[in-house]
Amino acid sequence: PPSLKGRDCLALSDYTPGEVESLLALALEGKEKLKKGEAWHPLSGKTLAMIFDKPSTRTRVSFEAGMAQLGGHPLALNRQELQLGRGESTADTAQILSGFVDAILIRTHWHSDVKELASYASIPVINGLTDLHHPCQALADLLTLKETKGKLAGLKLAYVGDGNNVLHSLLEAGALTGMHVAAAFPPGYEPDESIVQQAELIAQKTGGMVTWTHDPAEAVAGADAVYTDVWASMGQEEEKEKRMKDFVGYQVDPIMMAKAKSDALFLHCLPAYRGLEVAAEVIDGPQSAVFRQAENRLHAQKALLVMLLGD
Ligand code: CP
């Protein structure tokens, strides 16, 4: 496959449509190899340092398992275990880790911290979620849609909920692959304007489209997939009460799903809160692809690691 050797993955828009296509093709190939029990160890001798400032189940375990399956060594760390937690600078940490390991995965609060880390590191830096982007999640989402629907270009992906990091990465993912991303969010929960503009610019070149509304029914109408995320993300716990009121009418329930195509998928990056952003009948029902979507984190990220680090 074409190489992304030495590059970072801070946002999906770091990549071209062709590079995203190659990542998805390699992810499908790797998934097939794993299912057949074929060995695939292109990262033998490579080490991935993983820094987590926030809790994680899927990102932490899928990167750790993926790196091990590829023959490499994952090293899970949190800020408090590092001198970073005692005030050592991001710049110094980036340069030190660059001398020890082959890539850094980081989940932290501010996207600007990850950009700073990447600017001082001489090795690839992968964003495992920041306030602005969740590119690894969006790659897995694309993979799930591609293997279920057989194509991406021309699909309508409806997103109902908070205009957050997950929506930002979906906007870029959809634009890069020629999809129509139709977002519905309450007033006051708009996505970042510059990311929307960036996605619109990409979509103009790929035949994709970005639209938004405050009416979930409009976004979901005729959609091939309906996606939602938690109403109060990590770090927004104190806003929970207000958010519960502001998001009334945004729950993905069977009535909302019925407005999408009859074979529409339900997607959620997880963790999910049944009875809030999604009804239990939907997430536990036949249209839900959430566990396949979570499993695809492993395959999408293995492809990413191989393209960033492989020889
Ligand atoms: N979707 C996601 O990133 O899950 P974790 O927070 O468990 O990593």
What does this structure look like?
By secondary structure, the chain is α/β, with parallel strands linked by helices. The protein folds into two domains: 12-133 and 297-309, 3-Layer(aba) Sandwich (Rossmann fold), CATH 3.40.50; 137-293, Rossmann fold. The protein has helices at residues 17-36, 58-69, 90-100, 111-120, 135-149, 165-176, 193-206, 216-220, 240-246, 254-257, 280-283, 290-309; strands spanning 47-52, 73-78, 103-107, 125-127, 156-160, 180-184, 209-213, 225-228, 265-268. The strands form two sheets. It has a five-stranded parallel beta sheet with strand order 7-6-5-8-9. The model has no long low-confidence stretch (mean pLDDT 97). The structure holds phosphoric acid mono(formamide)ester (CP).
Topology:
Layout: H1 17-36, E1 47-52, H2 58-69, E2 73-78, H3 90-100, E3 103-107, H4 111-120, E4 125-127, H5 135-149, E5 156-160, H6 165-176, E6 180-184, H7 193-206, E7 209-213, H8 216-220, E8 225-228, H9 240-246, H10 254-257, E9 265-268, H11 280-283, H12 290-309
Parallel strand pairs: 1-2, 1-3, 3-4, 5-6, 5-8, 6-7, 8-9
Helix pairs in contact: 1-5, 1-12, 2-12, 3-4, 5-6, 5-12, 6-7
This protein binds phosphoric acid mono(formamide)ester.
Residues 56-59, 129, 137, 269-270 line the site of phosphoric acid mono(formamide)ester (CP).
Features:
Rossmann fold; four-stranded parallel β-sheet; binds phosphoric acid mono(formamide)ester; five-stranded parallel β-sheet; 311 residues; 2 domains; alpha/beta
Strand content: 5-15%
Distance between the termini: 11 Å
What's the helix-strand series?
HEHEHEHEHEHEHEHEHHEHH
Number of domains: 2
Main structural class: alpha/beta
The overall pLDDT average reads 97
Specify the helix fraction band: 40-55%
